[in-house]
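Postdoc handover notes: sequence design on the structure in folder B. Input tokens:
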């Protein structure tokens, strides 16, 4: 009796953990970078932490390497200001050399 109860509890706990992990899965959406485009360009001011740019990228920090595969996003993420924008927003931006997706340049889509 106690053994069966223990098995049921382990199964229930496993299912609960899987549901929590699925709920925490990162949803990468490169369109969330759009409010940051003016800040990635040289010479402009940096965003404030409560700006739409910062609010959007705070949940996207784990996506930056993947965004390098998209030429529209890549061209902004390779700018020198991306680190400054990340710092202003409290988001750690990866070193591009650590991203396996980055080949030293942004690739153009094949036609």
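Designed sequence:
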């Amino acid at each position: 009796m106690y053994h069966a109860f223990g098995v049921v509890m382990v199964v229930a706990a496993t299912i609960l953990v899987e549901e929590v992990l699925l709920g925490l899965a990162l949803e990468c959406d490169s369109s969330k970078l759009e409010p940051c485009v003016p800040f990635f360009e040289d010479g402009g001011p940096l965003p404030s932490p409560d700006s739409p740019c910062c609010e959007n990228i705070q949940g996207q920090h784990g996506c930056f390497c993947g965004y390098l595969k998209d030429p529209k996003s890549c061209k902004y993420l390779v700018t020198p200001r991306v680190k400054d924008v990340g710092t202003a927003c409290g988001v750690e931006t990866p070193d591009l050399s650590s991203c396996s997706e980055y080949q030293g340049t942004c690739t153009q889509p094949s036609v």
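Context for whoever picks this up: Residues 2-23 form the longest helix (22 residues). Don't rerun without checking with the PI first.
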